[in-house]
């Protein structure tokens, strides 16, 4: 009997890209005859081909318009038997390959408290989601993904959807009523080079040598073993020397460790602002609060923001939760029976691995339910459990060059898509100078792999963020490199997210507007007839006006009259339909003169024009910077569609 093996993408509920050739492929016995029929909505096409010497077969069906209710049937026969493969509930619509690192990977589960209506309103048969599991191969490109199935959003499935991708699909479907397929392939912490092939990295010899090193399975096994051993030894040693932990695990009361004479720590706060600066080891934080006449029969929520690096939490001696790494929000459930009238206590063991502990400032620290809320911010007592040295670095194997491309991207490239959606860059912040060139190679390489030189590339510029940035992490440089992609590479479009981040969180929860802005980019490329605005204001023309020209450029005369400035800079803008808006004072423009001195410039908005007034600038201005900081310090500039002007640098 003949076999018919096909990639997991070819399964019930799949979505084909409309208006593009439909490529169907798989493997059977070599030199075998196999037929395929695609039918539905009065469309029907049958083809018969022969597999090659390796058993591979390919069908190329004519493009179809959007629709649903299609079926695909494949048949392979030998002299005695016929093998039939049927795939049902197929849609034709718009398919997006959604990739990148953690902010693309961030699931609805993580943002559910911001979007409580989603589980009850998400049912939609026309949105289909295919999640590719984390997998690397440094030796070759995979034929198929390791896992994956087409899933429709429902109360039971939606929590596992990428939030950015889902909100994009929801907004796009509302606008077009066309079925949407989301192929999600991302991994937190990954670098752009993880998602590039060897050809794309040609000339980057050190990166290719690294890929060769990790193609050796025995070497990788040693690295995995070393990671596990280093972590286990570090934690076991720390735990063995932590006297308070020993007593807690034995069920003993440890409140006696915390008295009026205990050291105090502001919570939330950075440990670096206390005697715990550069501390590695375990720290126990203790806080008492009163609940007289406030007890409820409903259970409570204990929210502690984010904590670096890991934590375990007890309420009145009852363990209520633990988290093993720094990024997830600490949202623990507290049984109402754990609480009592009068004095209650919270005990947190924080383990700091790299000398930069914190309970993140700016996050809500409180105990609550629908009837009650207790703010837990303030001075907490603390005691050191045990002190140690920094943990040895982890070798993040799956972030190495080519591995994710081979394992999670290459298997998809024969499958027609409408656009690439990319959200990545945080992990390249310490090597920003290379980001544009790497992106150019990636974009060109992806377009070649998909066989479409004009394939739209939609991406998210890094948002505002401050908390964890090191001196070498130049997010402003990455943002500018991303803007250069938009400016220099055709058929690219960028979501400006400078207003959608959280200064104290690498993983901002505000994913709905990210998705909605991505949907505008998709509409711009796939539905140009809708003529939807997809970009914030963009400078189309900039020139310097000298005070001596007063009266010749009349629309700036009043600015010269008001401010004692030798120069003004006039910026004319596109993508603002005649008007730009700023909700407050704009103070994120800097001007650099020809000698390299930087000056803050006042910003005056007139219709779709910006006048910059660098009052202290004596030499001729040579460059403009807009939001050239980790985060904005004043109001941002928007068009009437609510889309912000992206950070930029511009020579004059």
Number of strands: 36
Q: Indicate the mean pLDDT.
A: 95
Report the portion of residues in β strands: 25-35%
The share of residues in helices is 10-25%
Shape by Cα distribution = globular
Unreliable stretches: none
Please tally the helical runs, counting DSSP H or I stretches of 4 or more residues: 12
Beginning-to-end CA distance, first to last residue:
72 Å
Structural class: alpha+beta
What's the alpha carbon Rg, rounded to whole Å? 29 Å
Oligomer: single chain
What report would you give on this structure?
The protein is an alpha+beta fold and 652 residues long. Helices cover 19% and strands 32% of the residues. It contains 12 helices and 36 strands. Strands 1, 3, 4, 6, 7, 8, 9, 10, 24, 25 and 26 form an 11-stranded mixed sheet that branches. Strand 30 and strand 31 (598-600) form a beta hairpin. It is globular, with a radius of gyration of 29 Å. The mean pLDDT is 95.
């Amino acid at each position: 009997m003949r076999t018919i093996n096909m990639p997991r993408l070819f399964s019930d509920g799949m979505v084909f890209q409309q208006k593009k050739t439909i490529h169907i492929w798989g493997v059977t016995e070599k030199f075998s005859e196999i037929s395929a029929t695609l039918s539905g909505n009065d469309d029907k096409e049958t083809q018969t081909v022969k597999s090659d010497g390796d058993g591979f077969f390919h069908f190329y069906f004519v493009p179809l318009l959007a629709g649903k209710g299609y079926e695909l049937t494949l048949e392979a026969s030998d002299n005695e038997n016929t093998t039939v493969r049927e795939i049902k509930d197929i849609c034709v619509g718009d398919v997006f390959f959604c990739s990148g690192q953690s902010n693309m990977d961030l699931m609805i589960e993580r943002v559910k408290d911001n979007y409580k209506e989603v589980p009850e309103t998400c049912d939609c048969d026309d949105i289909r989601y295919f999640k590719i599991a984390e997998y690397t191969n440094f030796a070759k490109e995979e034929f198929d993904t390791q896992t994956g199935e087409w899933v429709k959003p429902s109360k039971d499935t939606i929590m596992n959807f990428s939030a950015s991708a889902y909100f994009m699909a929801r907004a796009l479907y509302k606008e077009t009523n066309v079925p949407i397929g989301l192929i999600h392939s991302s991994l937190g912490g990954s670098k752009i080079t993880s998602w590039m092939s060897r050809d794309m990295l040609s000339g980057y010899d050190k990166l290719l040598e690294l890929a060769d090193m990790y193609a050796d399975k025995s070497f990788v096994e040693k690295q995995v073993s070393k990671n596990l051993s280093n972590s286990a030894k570090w934690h076991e040693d720390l735990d063995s020397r932590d006297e308070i932990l020993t007593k807690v695990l034995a069920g003993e009361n440890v409140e006696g460790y915390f008295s009026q004479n205990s050291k105090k720590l502001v919570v939330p706060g950075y440990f670096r602002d206390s005697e715990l600066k550069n501390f590695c080891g375990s720290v126990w934080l203790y806080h008492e609060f009163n609940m007289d006449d406030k007890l409820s029969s409903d259970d409570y929520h204990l929210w502690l923001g984010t904590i670096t690096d890991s934590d375990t939490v007890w309420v009145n001696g009852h363990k209520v939760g633990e988290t093993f790494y720094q990024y997830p929000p600490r949202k623990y459930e507290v049984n109402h029976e754990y609480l009592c009238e009068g004095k209650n206590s919270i005990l947190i063991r924080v383990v700091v691995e790299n000398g930069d502990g914190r309970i993140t400032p700016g996050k809500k620290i409180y105990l609550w339910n629908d009837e009650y809320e207790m703010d837990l911010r303030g001075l907490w007592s603390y005691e050191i459990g045990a002190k140690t040295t920094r943990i040895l670095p982890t070798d993040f194997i799956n972030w190495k060059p080519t591995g994710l491309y081979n394992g999670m991207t290459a298997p998809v490239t024969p499958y027609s898509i409408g656009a690439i959606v990319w959200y990545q860059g945080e992990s390249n912040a310490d090597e920003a100078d290379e980001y544009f060139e790497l992106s150019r190679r990636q974009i060109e390489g992806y377009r070649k792999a998909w066989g479409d030189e004009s394939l739209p590339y939609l991406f998210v510029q890094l948002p505002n963020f401050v908390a964890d940035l090191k001196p070498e992490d130049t997010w402003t440089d990455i943002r500018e490199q991303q803007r250069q992609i938009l400016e220099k590479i055709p058929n690219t479009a960028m979501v400006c997210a400078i207003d959608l981040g959280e200064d104290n969180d690498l993983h901002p929860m505000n994913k709905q507007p990210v998705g909605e802005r991505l949907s505008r980019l998709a509409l711009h490329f796939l539905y140009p007839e809708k003529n939807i605005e997809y970009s914030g204001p963009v400078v189309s023309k900039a020139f310097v006006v000298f005070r001596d020209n007063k009266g010749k450029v009349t629309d700036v005369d009043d600015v010269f009259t008001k401010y004692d400035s030798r120069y003004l800079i006039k910026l004319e803008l596109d993508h603002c339909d005649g008007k730009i808006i700023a909700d407050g004072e704009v103070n994120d423009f800097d001007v650099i003169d020809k000698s390299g001195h930087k000056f803050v410039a006042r910003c005056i908005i007139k219709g779709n024009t910006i006048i910059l007034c660098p009052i202290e600038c004596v030499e001729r201005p040579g460059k403009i910077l807009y939001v050239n900081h980790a985060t904005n310090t004043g109001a941002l500039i928007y068009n009437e569609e609510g889309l912000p002007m992206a950070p930029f640098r511009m020579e004059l």
